[in-house]
Amino acid sequence: xxxxxxxxxxERNPKTELSGGQLVTPFESPRRAELIKxxxxxxxxxxxxxxxxxxxxxxxxxxxAGFVAFLETVWQRWQAAGMAGEAIPTVFPARRMQARPVRNxxxxxxxxxxxxxxxxxxxxxxxxxxxxxxxLTAAQWIALGDRCSFALCRPPGHHAAFDLYGGYCFLNNxxxxxQHLLDHGASRIAVLDVDFHHGNGTQDIFYxxxxxxxxxxxxxxxxxxxxxxxxxxETGEGKGLGFTANYPLPPGTGWERWAxxxxxxxxxxxxxAPDVLVVSLGVDTFERxxxxxxxxxxxxxxxxxxxxxxxGTPTLYVMEGGYAIDDIGQNVVAVxxxxxxx
Length: 342
Description:
This protein is α/β, with parallel strands linked by helices. The protein contains ten helices and ten strands.
């Protein structure tokens, strides 16, 4: 199994995150990716290779061009406006207000943001480009015949919608990879999101389409971020009706209940018979994750990988969340090793 990795991930290194009413050190940090990379190399799961550089065409297949231009220029414009700190939105187009991308940079931040916890710094856009490069590189390996590959993406991507960023996400790596696979020979893709948080961005991008089956297991939005997406009655619209499935689960969910939802989702995958399975791999379902409330343990991640490997479908893993730093490498390796039956 090959792993695609971009050294540009370290360029994103903000110092502030709004959490619990305080500005704290961000939970999503460069160390996450470095620890995963080291764990993969130690476990000898296969080579970790530098991601190939791709242009913006695959990004613009799933994201709004104005949104991408905003991400490219926001830091420079923020500084030009005389702002001393990191770029954080302070106002949003709330109910009954005009939702339009105004000229002012503060207004644009609010227009394109889904939440305020995610600060933008000088290296955010280069890191986001590196993450999409990792996803596209690993997707290309699958398109060329690999049965399993891993995109070690940072920043993550599944909260990034057609024209929204937030939840540490800027470009939707999994969606970009899925579209790339469709553009290079695949006719049907299934995206299975096992991150603790609902993959609202991926759902948004594919909600009205029938060539991508999207399934997400996550904390009940009544209790968990992003709160306004991921309810069980969200099943798609138009020709996409029935091609979205959400499995919101309560606080304290452990392996037995989580695996029951997984089996239901996998039955949908098998029936759909995709050419490729894209897995948004978050390991923040772990019992000691600092910003989640599931109770999966180390052996459960190997069980997850083993179960996905049993499907026999070409599989692309795309890294999403996971914030228990001391355990993140072990948990990611467990999934991949389980898939490979190593």
